[in-house]
Structure formats: structure tokens, C-alpha cells
Amino acid sequence: MSRPRIPPDWIFEEDAIKNSPSRRAGMSEKQELDQKREGIDIMKKIGHELGWKLNNATGAACVYFHRFYMLHSIQEFPCPTTALSCMFLAGKSEETPKKCKDIAQIALKHFSQVFRVNLSQLMDDIMGMERVLLQSIKFDFTIDLPYKYIIMYANDFKSKRAFDAAMVSDIVCCAWPLVNDSFFTHLCLAWEPQIIAVSLFWLAIKLRQHEEINETKWWEEHVAELCSDKMETICHEVLDYYTLMNNSGGCGASA
Predict the structure, then answer these.
(1) CA-CA distance, 76 to 78, in Å (whole number)?
(2) DSSP string covering 222-241, please?
(3) d(CA 207, CA 176)
(4) How far apart are CA 102 and CA 224, in angstroms?
(5) What angle do CA 188, 196, 251 make, to 5 degrees?
(6) What's the CA gap between 85 and 32, in Å, rounded?
(7) Where in the chain are all domains bearing CATH 1.10.472.10?
(8) Which residues form the Cyclin-like domain (predicted)?
């Protein structure tokens, strides 16, 4: 089965995302999303117990995870073990390393119904999967995440635009979990991190009812030729995820 061409920046066309290896192997869109979201949920819960904040290390693990499944099918490599290997790799690439044993122990503690093996076997599985992961991503550890841009926009609002610090903090507190939960979608495969950050910061401003800020078109200083229609499209990916979770009783928004 042929694999999609890997773009230099790992940003794929919509058709390539819809025609992923898992889909070509017979999995429906819903099945693929459900299983990938289970993997993301495992990473976020284990990352929390490891003491990782929901930003660089966990975010990098999520990006590795999504990139891997543009090259391999879930049928061949089930999501749970891949998720643990992505965490193991991200800990090292983001300079917050965690022992394979620690990751495996937490996984067995909280997801015993998912990982039906002993500790030694799970550790072997994680390290073996890490080798496949490294070869698949071609040892490309370059991960740019939206979080730093959220901080940059907040600082810009406070310094250059002299907006009230409490108001800006309120917007950031809304935007941050939107970025966290964007990893439950395919956004990191379809859009550059700065565009995701601009769009979700724009959404946070709307949700916090500070529309007068968006009327200034502040984002034009950061991303050229970004129209509101594109931002709406990106925001609806996250909002649609929340709607789905609310209707299904699944995991909700990040705290």
C-alpha cells in the first residue's frame, strides 16, 4: 500500500488526511477518529500524572502520533501502544525525559483493560514501537506548537496595545484549553501552528465577549492574508469536537 508524500512541513492537503492509511485499509472516518482520540486521551491522562503540563511535551507527543498515522494504519499499529511510544519519544525530544518503566506503570495502573500485558512486555512494546516511530518520522524532531504564539499574542496585547492585563489573562485562560483540545482533531496535520493559535485566540476573544478587539483585525500583524472564513473553519473543528463529546458523554474540554 502506497504512502502519501510527506510534505517538508508535515502539513497535508485535506484529501490526503481523508485518504489516510487507516481509511484505505477499510476503517470509517468515525472509527479512525474514535480510536485516535482514545490514544490522545491516554497521552493526556498519563502526561498529567507524569507531571507534564498540557503544552510542549504532551503536545509534541500528540503531533508525533498524528503524523505517524499519516504513514501507517491503525489496523497495523493499534493506537494505545503507539501513544505510549510517542510520549516516551516526546519526553526526550522536549527535554523532559521520563523512564519507559514509569510510563508503562502508569498505563497499567489506569488502563489495565487496554494494556493486557505485564510490565516487562509493555516496556518492550513501547521501545520496539519507538524504533518504528523514529524511522517513520525520519528522525524529524522539529515540532512547532501553538502555545508559544498564544503567549506572544498575550504579551503583544498587554505591551503594544495596552489592553487590561486581567482581560488578556481571561482570554488566554480560554484559548489555552482550546489548543489542548485541538489535538483531538486533525488540525495539526492541516494547518500551521501559528494559524491554529491565531484562530483559537480569535475564538477565545469571541467566547469572552470582547468583540471590540477582533474588530481591530489584530491578527493581520502576525499572519498575512488570513481571512475570517479560514479562522471559522479551524474553530469549528474544535467546537464540533465539543458537540460530539457532549452528545456522546465522552471526555470533555481540558481544564
Answers:
(1) 6
(2) TSTT--HHHHHHHHHHHHHH
(3) 13
(4) 44
(5) 65
(6) 19
(7) 14-136, 147-248
(8) 41-135
The rounded radius of gyration (Å) of the Cα atoms in the chain is 19
Q: Considering the domain 147-248 in this protein, what is its CATH number?
A: 1.10.472.10
* Confidence band, pLDDT 50/70/90 cuts, at residue 245: confident
**Could you write out the three-class secondary structure of 175-214?**
HHHHHHHHCCCCHHHHCCHHHHHHHHHHHHHHHCCCHHHH
Does residue 31 register a pLDDT over 80? yes
The CATH superfamily label for domain 14-136 reads: Cyclin-like (1.10.472.10)
- How much is the average pLDDT of 203-221? 89
Mean pLDDT over the full length of the chain: 92
Angle in degrees, CA 124, 126, 127, rounded to 5:
65
The vertex-201 CA angle with 178 and 242, nearest 5°, equals 25
Residue length of the chain: 255
**C-alpha closest to that of 168 among 201, 215, 216, 217:** 201
**Cell numbers at 167, concatenated:** 482581560
Residue 145 backbone zone (phi > 0: left; psi -120 to 50: alpha; other: beta): beta
pLDDT tens per residue across span 42-88:
999 999 999 887 668 999 999 999 999 999 999 999 999 999 999 99
End-to-end CA distance of the chain: 40
- Residue written as grid cell 509493555: 122
